[in-house]
Amino acid sequence: MKAVVIREHGGLDTLHLDEMPSPVPGPGEALVRVRAVALNNLDIWARSGPPGGRPIFPWGGMRLPMITGADVAGVIEQVGPDVQSAMVGRRVVVNPILSCGTCEFCLSGEQSMCAEYRIFGEHTAGGMADYTVVPERNFYALPNHVRFEHAAAVPACYTTAWRMLVSVAKLRAGEDLLVVGASGGVGSAALVIGRFAGARVFAVVGDDGKAAKAASLGAIPINRNEHPRFSERVRALTGSGVHVVVDPVGASTWPESIRSLRPGGRMTICGASGGERPDIDIREIYQRHRQILGAPMGNVTDFLTVMELVVRGALMPVIHAVLPLGEIREAHRMFEAREHFGKIVLVP
């Protein structure tokens, strides 16, 4: 099979399709022919090295060589022992959340709090290949009317955004929501989910083209180049600030994100691509009764919820481009240059 195998950290020239043996499913696993796989920050960091040179997760960094790709949709071609043969031929999308399934957190439905929590395609071989092996319990059956490209755009970013907005921030209809980094995967997902939830959505973006795209999706755009202190623009538009901020960026935007909150507002966070050590005045948090809530990738219920909404047509994932897997270098270049608004999907 063809696969993008990352063997060393470096530039785009380190990316190429290699010929590899097809994996064989073990007990409780199935072999999936990949029909679509979406790009995430984890794919970029696997190739370039983790930001700041530090591990992305506290329990350790990425181990090379590796095949990345957390967001996978495809067709089951072969099953391992203990898996029903009737699953062969099924269209599926992969839930990238891996956990032990037996600890107190897993049993309470909070798999991402599990001490053994891992991400498919980051701690295991993923879907940047013709085939990949997936645990049976991580499949979601995909109806025929849902395109593989749309399904692959959903798991990591839309599960995370749903967790941030609905499960953690408890966003309500009629509230004001600010999405920082609204053109990225989590940001564009939060914009769409915020609109679905009935919020008035403000979107911080980096140029006029992205502002136009955000407006077309129903958001009120704020161009950060024109308003570097975007909190001032938020207060001018809202009077007292927003109820909820989604900030997947990190240190570079935290001060303005916090100042964009009204008294008693909630900020949910899930990433640190813009730095992990913000310079903030904690009095701006507690003296105004603001809350900062951690919300990394959600649990299985969050994943199932967003997938069911996509299947029903209630949520439509934002896709910037669909490229052949052979154009993996162009996909990484586009992602790193921040040219995209929404997800970049690759098709083997």
Nutshell version of this structure?
By secondary structure, the chain is of the alpha/beta class. The protein has helices spanning 41-48, 104-107, 148-152, 155-168, 185-196, 208-216, 230-238, 254-259, 283-286, 300-312, 328-336; strands spanning 2-4, 17-19, 29-38, 71-79, 91-94, 97-98, 118-119, 131-135, 139-141, 176-180, 200-205, 220-223, 242-247, 261-269, 291-294, 319-324, 343-347.
Tell me what the structure shows.
The chain has 348 residues and is of the alpha/beta class. It has 2 domains: 2-153 and 318-347, Alpha-Beta Complex (Quinone Oxidoreductase, Chain A, domain 1), CATH 3.90.180; 158-294, NAD(P)-binding Rossmann-like Domain (Rossmann fold). The chain contains 11 helices and 17 strands. The chain has helices at 41-48, 104-107, 148-152, 155-168, 185-196, 208-216, 230-238, 254-259, 283-286, 300-312, 328-336; strands spanning 2-4, 17-19, 29-38, 71-79, 91-94, 97-98, 118-119, 131-135, 139-141, 176-180, 200-205, 220-223, 242-247, 261-269, 291-294, 319-324, 343-347. Strands 3, 4, 5, 8, 9, 16 and 17 form a 7-stranded mixed beta sheet that branches. A 6-stranded parallel beta sheet has the order 12-11-10-13-14-15, with helices on both faces. α4 crosses α5 and α4 (155-168) crosses α10. The radius of gyration is 20 Å and the shape is globular. The mean pLDDT is 94.
